Amino acid sequence: MEEHFILRVPPSVAERLDKLLSEDPSAVEDALDLAFRDARSGMFTIGQDKFPASLVDMPCVLESYKTYDDNVLIKTADIGQMILVQEEGEAAPEGPEYKHGLTPAMRDARRRRFRREPDLNPDLVQQVENDLQSIMAGGTARDVDVEVVEQDADDEDEEPAPHTTAASKKSKAAAAAGTAAVADEAGGDGDGDGDDDFDDLMDEDDEDD
């Protein structure tokens, strides 16, 4: 991957740069120079004119591509910084983080498109980090509040009492009769125990009714 940056210049300087790039390098009279006084500010020189320049961080990462046949694009770099050249007397950007993007849609992108950082208490954040490191090291958390919540007896769901209907009684009687008949067909001893059991079950159902 190559290292790229964006050079943004005033319109008057842009016209001179386009002319320099389109002409033969040997016939160029205006010399270009970029010198930095520190890590963020410097001076851009074209010919005899000098302009203040600032190195700023873009609000988003840009991708650059190159092509040799106007068909296949090859990614060459990720761009995150821009050298901003301004006219003499213009106010320098506030801080190293530039708030605008390259296109009109990205104007004031840091405020309109990015989520604001939460307003957290630094002491609370440090305490949480210390507790987390202590737990990971095998310790226990400090200043832990434990709250026990008990469910009221009135809120508990009561199980419905079993209810026997006449239809269920008849189903039991029919099941007993079927069992007795199967026992007789399977070669019972003929003592009529199956019929007696059926009669006893019917008598119990009559008493329940």
TrEMBL record:
Comp. bias intervals (Low complexity): 173-185
GO cellular component, one term: transcription factor TFIID complex
Location in the cell: Nucleus
Keyword set, alphabetical order: Nucleus, Transcription, Transcription regulation
MF terms (GO), sorted A to Z: RNA polymerase II general transcription initiation factor activity
Coiled coil residues, start to end: none
Chain ranges of the TAFII55 protein conserved region domain: 1-143
Region (Disordered): 149-209
One annotated GO biological process: RNA polymerase II preinitiation complex assembly
Family to which this protein belongs: Belongs to the TAF7 family.
Chain intervals with Acidic residues compositional bias: 149-159, 186-209
UniProt superkingdom: Eukaryota
Pfam family, one: TAFII55_N
Organism from which the protein derives: Ceratodon purpureus (Fire moss)
Name of the protein described by the UniProt record: TAFII55 protein conserved region domain-containing protein
